[in-house]
Amino acid sequence: MAKIESLDDLPRRAANLAAPAPDYPWPGDHGAAMFLSFDVDAESAWTAKDPENFNRLVTMSFGGFEARVGTPKLLELLDQLGLKATFFITGWTLDAHPAMCEAILAAGHEVGHHGYHHLLPDPGSTRLVEEVDMGLEALKRVLGVVPKGYRAPSGEFCPELRQLLTERGIVYTSSFRDDVRPYRHRLENGHPGPIELPVTASYDDWMLGLSARFSPRSIFPKEHVLSIWKDELDETRDWGGMVTTVLHPQCSGRPMRLRLLREFLIYAQSCPDLWIATGEEIAANFLKHEAAA
């Protein structure tokens, strides 16, 4: 894998890997899209930061909330609204909370790959292959799922990971923050990589509403977050683009945040031009138009 030897290499690397997002139409009469997705980390969100957190039981309980309360409440809300979403689940969570993960699949939602231990996929990491392959194995063993989609733990990426996911047959990833339309990754050898469904940073609830003892951030009130989310959605609709949520059951599954999410999703459903879809559906739409281009 080619390495960046100097800062002078950066423009060349960016130019080689940056392909403009094609302006493919959305299905039917829709003029914009929402990729509704959740990251199911459970306790692995905390043990990835510090393995000693295994022995810090209150810290671990923030993640344990997902299986006990957060995910069931979110599944109930999605069922009430008639919505299907994509849940990116770590392999560790599949092994620790199989019943919760089975409930997600049984409700008809898409299940995607989110690593195994939720470890940051740093360049040159000796555990990069293990994280991808152990996550794939857990999805197959626990749920019988061969995932089409992948979201990187902590939203980070490296060239080695892009190549690895392509070799493992991943159809799309959803980690980058560089566009408002899906596009096709390009590998360093010039070959096509997975489709990217870019993330919308302002829809990451972890940044706006996580109540944790060690968080340096205050919780944003509902009115502030709802204003951010509606403005982002309305402007993106005007652009004909796509917004992508990064919601976590241990955050948005809590009472105040669930009320906020309910109000926002009802607003999104009231937008007649908006296609609310899973990652698999959005990637399939991209593939359809790419093949016809």
General description of the model:
This protein has about 290 residues and is of the alpha/beta class. The protein has a single domain (about 30-290), classed as Glycoside hydrolase/deacetylase (TIM Barrel), CATH 3.20.20. It has helices at about 10-15, 45, 55-80, 90-95, 100-105, 130-145, 160-165, 205-210, 220-240, 250, 255-270, 280-290, and strands at about 30-35, 35-40, 85-90, 110-115, 150, 170-175, 185, 190-195, 240-245, 275. β5, α7 (about 160-165) and β6 form a beta-alpha-beta unit.
Mean pLDDT: 91
What's the overall geometry? globular
CATH domain topology: TIM Barrel
CATH superfamily grouping: Glycoside hydrolase/deacetylase
The biggest sheet amounts to:
4 strands, mixed
Number-wise, the strands total: 10
Number of helices: 12
**% residues in beta strands:** 5-15%
Helix content: 40-55%
CATH structural class: Alpha Beta
- Specify the structural class: alpha/beta
Q: Give, in order, the helices and strands.
A: HEEHHEHHEHEHEEEHHEHHEH
Strand order in the largest sheet? 5-6-8-7
* CATH architectural name: Alpha-Beta Barrel
> Total domains, how many?
1
Chain-wise SSE layout:
Elements: H1 9-17, E1 32-35, E2 37-40, H2 44-47, H3 57-81, E3 86-89, H4 91-96, H5 98-106, E4 110-113, H6 128-143, E5 149-150, H7 159-167, E6 172-173, E7 183-186, E8 192-196, H8 205-209, H9 222-239, E9 242-244, H10 249-252, H11 255-269, E10 274-277, H12 279-292
Parallel strand pairs: 1-9, 1-10, 2-3, 3-4, 5-6, 6-8
Antiparallel strand pairs: 7-8
Helix pairs in contact: 3-5, 3-11, 9-11
